[in-house]
Amino acid sequence: MAEVVVVGAGVGGLACAARLAAAGHQVTVYERSTVVGGKLGRRVVERPEGTYRFDTGPSLLTLPQVFDELFADLGGVTPSLVPLNPVVRHVFADGTVLDSCADPAEFADRIAAALGTEAAADWQGLWRRAGRVWDASWRDILRRPVDSPTALAGLAWRLGDLAAVAPGQSLRGLGRRRLRDPRLRMLLDRYATYTGADPRRAPAALAAVPYAELSFGGWYLPGGLGALGDALLERCVALGVSVHTGTTVTGIATGGGRVTGVRVGTTFVPADVVVSNVDALTLYRDLLPTPRRLARLSDRSLAGFVLLLGVAGRTPALAHHTVFFPADYDAEFDAVFGGRPAPDPAVFVTVADDPSVHPPGHEAWFVLVNAPRHGVGRGAVDWNRPGLASAYADRVLSVLAARGVDVRDRVLFREVLTPASLEASAAAPGGAIYGTAGGLLRPANRGPVPGLFLVGGSTHPGGGLPMVALSARIVAEQIGPA
C-alpha cells in the first residue's frame, strides 16, 4: 500500500483519488479552494423572485460511457443524465439555424433542410473520415499513456487510420477540403476551441471531437453539472480518501531521485506517490524543486469571458445550448490570440430548461465568449483593468441583440467572470479553460521524477470532462494496485 497525495480536487484529482483508494492505497487530497470540483464551478444567486443556480464551468457532458465505467469501478452509479436534443443550436450570421443531434442520419437530414443536399453529402463524407479518426484515437490514444511525439508516431495505426488522421494538416484545412458550405466549415472550426486551440493551427485529428459529441450525444445533469463533483467526493469519502479543502500545497519534495512528499504551507507531508491535478504549467514552473517549463507547454490557449444573467420571462428561440456565429470567424481568432477582446465574437448561451436552477417564469443564462488569457505581454489582456469587464459585458449583450436576441431590458442582474476570475478561483494560468497546453499532444501523465504523476485537462489526453476522467484512469493504472 502506497501513501498517495493528490494535489487538487478537480474532477481528475477526485476520480484518480477514488480509483487509487479502491485499489487499496492510502490517499489524501489537498485542495486550495474551500470547495471541490475545480473548474466545475457553481454560483448560487438569491433574489426576491427566487433562487438562480449557475454552472460556471462545463455545461455539457459527452461520452457518458466514461463516467458509467468510472462509477461502476468505484462501486457507485453515474448521476442521472438527461440527453439533449438538439445538442447545440447553431445560429449563423445570415439567420440560418441548424440543430445538431446524436443521430447521424437525422443530422444529415437537418443539414439538407437548412443548407442543402450538397452540404449534407459533404458532411457525411467528413463524418466517415472523422469516424476513422475517432476509432484510432479511442483504441490507441485516449485510454493509454502517450509520453512523447515519438510514442504517438509509434502507435500501431493501420495505414487507413494514418490517412484519416492526416498528420500535418489543420482542422481548418480539413474543412476547406471537405466542406463547400462556409457555415459547415464554421461549425467544424468551433470544435478546435474545445481544446483551447485556433482551428487554423489545430490538427485535423480534432475532427474526432464532433464525432464523439454527435455519436454519443450531449447530456445534462439536472441541478447542474457541478453535482458531478459532489458525486465523486461522496465516492472518495466512502472509499476512505481524506479530503482537505482550503489547504494549499506550496511545493513537491524530492530526494534520492524520486518524490518524497509535499509541502503544505511550512509543513512537510511524506508520500510515496504524488498526483498533481494542478495545471501542468503551474506544476513545472512553481511546485517542483527545480522549476522548469516544458518546451511544449503553450500559453496560446483560449480563455473565456462569462456573463451570468438572471432574465425575466422566457426565450423560446434558445435551445439548451445555442451558439451565435459571427460573419467573420477569423477576425475573432485574430483578436483573441493577438491579445484583444473580439468586438464581434461567437457567443455561446446555455439556458437549462430545469426548474431547479431558476425561479418560475425566469431564466438563468450562462453566456460564454472566447477571450485572450489574463496577464501582461504579447497575446494577453489585463482583465483587472478598471472598466474593461463591464464595458465588454455591454458589448457582448449588444452583439446578442444584433443577432436577434435582445434581452437587455429583461436582465434583472448580471455577474461577470473574466479570465482573471478563473485564474483566481481554479488556479488556471491566465484563465485558460482547457489547460495551458492546448492542442493534441499534451504533457505526459508520468512526471519527470519517479512517483510523480499528472491528471487533468492540461495533461494527456486533454481537456473536457471525459478526457479528464480518462487521465485519472491512465494514472491509476500506471500506479497500479496496492
Automatic annotation (TrEMBL):
MF terms (GO), sorted A to Z: oxidoreductase activity
Pathway info: Carotenoid biosynthesis
Protein name, per record: Phytoene desaturase
Record's keyword terms, sorted: Carotenoid biosynthesis, Oxidoreductase
Keyword Transmembrane helix found: no
Domain Amine oxidase: 12-479
GO biological process terms, semicolon-separated: carotenoid biosynthetic process
Domain of life: Bacteria
Family listed: Belongs to the carotenoid/retinoid oxidoreductase family.
UniProt key word Transferase: no
